[in-house]
Amino acid sequence: MKEVIKGFRKIVYLSFPPDVSGRPVVCNLARRFDLSFNILKAEISPRQVGGMTLEISGLEEDFEKGINYLKENGVRITPVAQKIFRDEETCMHCGLCTAMCATGALYIDRATREVCFDVDKCSACGMCTRVCPVRAMTVDLEDNGGLE
Amino acid sequence: MATHQVSKTIQEINDRIRKGKAVVLNAEEMTAEVRRLGKVKAAKEVDVVTTGTFSTMCSSGMLFNIGQEPPVMKVSELWMNSVPAYSGLAAVDAYLGATEPAEDDPLNKVHPGRFVYGGGHVIEDLVRGKAVHLKARAYGTDCYPRRKLDKDVTLADLPNAWLLNPRNCYQNYNCAVNLTSRTIYTYMGPLKPKCRNANYATAGALSPLFNDPLFKTIGMGTRIFLAGGVGYVIGSGTQHNPKPPRNEYGIPTTPAGTLMLKGDMKQMNARYLRGVSVVGYGCSLAVGVGIPIPILNEDIAWHTGVSNADIQVPVRDYGYDYPNGVPRVLGHVSYEELQSGEIVVDGRKVQSVPLTSLPMSLEVADELKRWILDGKFLLSQPVDDIECSY
Q1: In terms of domains, do A65 and A8 share one?
Q2: Are A58 and A96 part of one and the same domain?
Q3: Which residue among A114, A130, A133 places its CB closest to the CB of B276?
């Protein structure tokens, strides 16, 4: 039964203020809360503001505890799904973005041949926003410590 | 060739369209129909097959006239939303090309450039009904004294505006890969190093010139769907190759025939005319084109029965070969394989990535089909052939 619930998996974006970015907090997700994480993207600005996209998996209640722990330690959390948008009116379903999407969140439905966007797989890397010929994709990470 | 079991004329088909009795299928439906009934029966049953494509077509642009307001002007330089247009024509005529970037665009100075706004975007904005800033300068003459003009115009303000595309609807095109060790940014989209994606651009069995590969019905004067309005084929396009190598279906195995198209922009719909930005390459225009094919006999029916498996696309390296003019072809893959999402190049599996929108191509073919079924769109008899040999 435990294994079934262990399928809980979420991609979140963490932003670290300068006083937090130097401390080891993310490793405690594994140590204290039995969560696994996969670092999809991590960056640190010259002013020590950190940003990290994490794919976290484990028990849902452990996930909640882990997220609360991060928040208590001054890390701001945003689900990636709230950060990336596709303008459905603008997308012309050409398929170009599917070449650059590393996580397979953008893919072509073989039956309808439309470009589908599975936001749960998206790591908000921003590649699609750079290559989309009609700029249908937008990533909004601007309110996270000024990181682009 | 002289004797066909089925023989119809465009007049007869038009009579049936007027009476609402014409049988019209899109090119995908026709592929299934020819397979089901055979070419003779399909030719008897079906009157028109509609094709469609919606893809970036760089050799596109807008020929327009801005009208005069006294004192009159002979324009020598002209910009639309800061995008330069060519005005070396009569007093207030100009041509705006789809790939012309805005004058202050940083281009590829920081590589790869974004090419946010260019000629294609101006065309889309005008068709959307948006106002565009027109700036014109002149040296002044006795008959045309005005030196400057600055005003906002909409499409309705322009006395004439035609989409005039020197080369559209390329019959077959390369599938692009990159064999170098760095990512490159091409007009075929970004290509990852070491052949990790293969980008292709064609609507396959829906594509106009795969359904009439020998130009038996498409010629100068063929009436078409052009970006939501009525347009015409006005001849072969630039780089038209009448003698390509062909497979047993008559389908070229290299880029081959092209069409020059013209249509009144005032009838068009921005859904089928989109300004595009190709990262690291430039601006362009995606155009929706639908061409009706009259099923005059069983040979034409057989050609419209083309399936994705019958179309072979050449795979070429855009990392070294293409920029250096090396004509090497790495191999051919069928359009069916490309559509499966994965092809094999040099023994390795490579993700295949479309640049042509198939849902939009199908929508174009279906929209043209609806026009014909509604009796709004009649077929035209070409006034001249497009050069082609087999």
Answers
A1: yes
A2: no
A3: A133
CB A87 within 8 A of CB A114: no
Structural domain ending residue among the three candidates A81, A104, A130: A81
- Pair A42, A67 in one domain: yes
Range of A13's domain?
Answer: 2-81
Q: Measured between CB atoms, does A102 come within 8 Å of chain B? A: no
Chain A CA closest to residue B288: A92
pLDDT in tens, A50-109: 999 998 999 999 999 999 999 999 999 988 877 888 999 999 999 999 999 999 999 999
Q: Locate the chain B residue with the closest alpha carbon to A131.
A: B279
Q: Is the ipTM of this complex over 0.90?
A: yes
Q: Quick check: B353 contacting A, CB < 8 Å?
A: yes
Rg (CA), chain B: 22
Task: Kindly state whether A96 is in contact with chain B, defined as any CB-CB distance less than 8 angstroms.
Answer: yes
Specify the 3-state DSSP secondary structure of B69: coil
With respect to residue A144, please indicate whether it lies within any of the assigned structural domains: no
Q: Which of residues 121-140 of A touch B (CB under 8 A)?
A: 130-131, 133-135
Neighbour-count burial of B182, counting CB atoms closer than 10 A to its CB (0-12 exposed, 13-18 middle, 19+ buried): exposed
Structure tokens at A58: 């484990």
The answer to whether the beta carbons of residues B77 and B231 sit under 8 Å apart is no
The residue from A63, A81, A99 where one domain ends is A81
Pairwise CA distance, residues B68 & B159, whole Å: 10
Closest-CA residue of chain A to B360: A92
Per-residue pLDDT reduced to its tens digit, B216-265: 999 999 999 999 999 999 999 999 999 999 999 999 999 999 999 999 99
pLDDT in tens, B125-167: 999 999 999 999 999 999 999 999 999 999 999 999 999 999 9
SS3 state of residue B353: strand
Domain residue extents for chain B: 52-57+164-294+306-373, 71-159
